[in-house]
Amino acid sequence: MTMNILKRKAKKQKQSASHKKWTIGFLIAAVVIWIFYTYIMGNLPDGPQTVFQNWLPPTTVNEAMVWVICALGLNIVVGYAGLLDLGFVAFWAIGGYSAGWFMSTFFQQANFHFLSPKDVAKQPGIHLTFWVVLGLGGLICAMFGIIIGAPTLRLKSDYLALVTLGFGEIIPQFFTNGENIGGFNLSNGTKGISPVDNISIGPRILGPFDFSWKFAIFVFLTAVMVFISLRLRKGRLGRAWLAIREDELAASMMGVPLMSTKLAAYAVGAFSGGVGGVAFATHVNGVFADRFNFSISIILLAMVVLGGMGNVWGVMVGALLVAWINSTGLPAFGDLVNTTFNTNINFPSYNFLLFGGVLILMMLFKREGMIPESRLKAILHEADDTTSNVGGAH
Amino acid sequence: MSIFTSGYQARLDRRRFFERSLSTVAGFGILFWLGINFVKSPSQFFQASLIGLSNGVLYALIALGYTLVYGIIELINFAHGDLFMLSAVFSANFITVWFHKDSSGPAAWGVFLMCLLTVMIFAATINVGIERFAYRRLRRAPKLAPLITAVGVSFVLQFIGLRWNGSGPKTWNSVLPAGSFHIASVSIPFTTILSFAITAPLLLLMSWIVTRTRQGKAMRATAQDQDAARLMGINVDRTISFTFALGGALAGAAGLLFQQTRGLTSYNLGYQLGLIAFTSAVMGGIGNLQGAVLGALLIGLVQGLNDGLPIGLGQQWSQTVVFSILILLMAFRPTGLLGKAVTEKV
Q1: Which candidate in B160, B320, B329, B343 is best for mutational testing of the A interface (most A CBs within 10 A)?
Q2: Domain count within chain B
């Protein structure tokens, strides 16, 4: 008995030690990248500088951080609570449009300023400071998460996936057609809302090309999301999520309130989707309806699955990797291959094959992802022991 | 009755009353909308319904594939829509590129029938192959795994479509007789009649296979309980493969019909149509064959009416209407129109 307790204690210490290691690694990497892009990149000779511009430009890094924020949110829904969400793009879009509404000149008829940067002080429209809009966008998304979740969370998992998918289709179409909702221009249609206000930190205003400072802000947001994820995971709510993920019936018998726990997962996930959406709007300096499509939901899901469902660090690594391959990694690699071997292969067009193939192979051979969570790994391979008596060759 | 159950009962009754009154209000609203449109322009009303129904027939063919597969292994086969897309591309190449037929005529009709057979075999083979190599190994895994695999397969099929068909949409000439005839200012194209004429026997054949043959019996048994079916001497693997073949063949026929009636192929065709078809399958009660056909015709009709009526939301809201129906249906009647309430096995 005492042995068991000691063992468990040791295991707990090991776990928190590994989290500590990862946290330190994350911070060091962030500081190194920040110093590199702020001070070193501009002073490099032309050769290495073009290499970095081709392989890892600052805008790619920043965009990848936005993906990480959203993927961490999806991880709470899919990885922690085990609810499949195929329409996460809806939250990203709503977050983006909250930035469009509350920090631009879009609503000409209104004139409201709150701690907004000085350069827009004379302009009409609603101008709130970036930091307020972050919370506001997140809250609006959380509200939508609850609205969509409340009537549907009692459904079976497949149906839930389908409802979220439908939601992810409706919201972008709503924004695409939102030019004229009963005579009111809500989203400026396909033209989108651009530009949005700059981020201001005290008196300092970050321009659209202030990549390294934006990087620092995005890293900070990611760190907050990681902190929230890890804290929630350890607490009562997180344990309830895991219980639901592993066995819904058993969890409800043990007194876990299914609906409110699931709704909480939805709301927290949606919140971070909204935060990511606001961050993305400031990153591309606008919101455009045609960017929000189904592939975003799928790519986010791929990030979570490939990285390791339920493991914050795995999801982060997965998100960074996939985002990089998607934006500059694959084209740069293609250019390298084409110039070295004198071929003419269009590498980005193999994107579909790459993602599809990786998803299938991972599911067949390494279901738990690159950096798995130990509990989930055990569950995902539970079935393997009993498959021996299932017909067919294995 | 104890106080606990009576409180619960009251809440249930209130909920039921709320749902019933809501659906009555919605029903009257829809009737009112249809009535106004009918009075305003009867010919447009019938024309829109006709277009809707001819779409619905296509949806039915695809929806059956979803519902068959879901009925037997409880998997949303995301790749099914893309299988339909590949079939459309295959048919276009078969008729126009390989047999050089781009106008109507007896020889071309022969090629069309040959293509119908070939494309059905083609799609069935691919579907069986997908099941064999991707889904079979994951049959006992947690549900998320096969679902994500299906998404992966869908990507791979889209890649094949992208290579085969190019990145943009392509237009093709139809070999079916063009033109239409009129009944009191409602024009009925020959192609619509033809797609009804081809779909109806296919649906009858399929319903005959599922309800009357030995193989169909095996399918139904496997759907109910795989282990029990195996104990009764049914080859479960072969039965599941057969189900995939059946669904694939119907998707192949749908691909050919779509390509010939619309004259258009594109690599991302399968995604939207697949989603709509799946919605129809859910609407009718997933796993229920008649339900899938009914749901598909209804969804087609709703879409046609919404797009074509003088007072309506118009085409740009088409998807929103379809998916709103899906969400409302899931929230209030998750078993679908014809589905029976099933208590989940524990």
Answers
A1: B320
A2: 1
